[in-house]
């Protein structure tokens, strides 16, 4: 087989490539919205982890409330981008919860989690 045939074959394979989909019909690697109360309930531990790590790294006393929304993305592991409601224990028991954005990377087969990002959530301005 010549190089021209090889490269022509490669071009043909690339042109005919159909992306694989996971079992739910969502493209692998594409962020998928976290839907429903059951799924949010299942992700509580990820939310608790994010708040705990933020508290440890920054000497804060936030208390996890709930998962408000988010996405999960399959990469070499799972990347969770969450909006978490948490209250600051220093503000007192009656303090209203604030919304925070957290990004957690999880490689379950290695029992590895890392908090990549955590900040106060600022909703996009409505036009």
Kindly provide the radius of gyration, computed on alpha-carbon positions and rounded to a whole number of angstroms.
20 Å
Main pleated-sheet profile: 5 strands, antiparallel
List SSEs in N-to-C order.
Answer: HEHHEEEE
Give average pLDDT, whole number.
80
> What would you call the shape?
elongated
Taking pLDDT < 50 over at least 5 consecutive residues as the criterion, the unreliable ranges are: none
Strand neighbour order, sheet with most strands: 1-2-3-4-5
Oligomer: single chain
Strand content: 35-45%
Helix content: 25-40%
By DSSP, the count of extended strands is 5
Structural class: alpha+beta
* Count of helical stretches: 3
Can you offer a commentary on this structure?
The protein is an alpha+beta fold. 28% of the residues lie in helices and 37% in strands. It has three helices and five strands; from the N terminus they run H-E-H-H-E-E-E-E. The chain has helices spanning 3-15, 36-42, 44-58, and strands spanning 32-33, 62-75, 77-88, 98-107, 112-120. Strands 1-2-3-4-5 form a five-stranded antiparallel sheet. The N and C termini lie far apart (60 Å). The mean pLDDT is 80.
Key words describing this protein structure:
single chain, 127 residues, alpha+beta, 5-stranded antiparallel beta sheet, 5 strands, 37% strand
Concise summary:
The chain is α+β, with helices and mostly antiparallel strands. The protein is 28% helix and 37% strand.
Layout of SSEs?
Layout: H1 3-15, E1 32-33, H2 36-42, H3 44-58, E2 62-75, E3 77-88, E4 98-107, E5 112-120
Antiparallel strand pairs: 1-2, 2-3, 3-4, 4-5
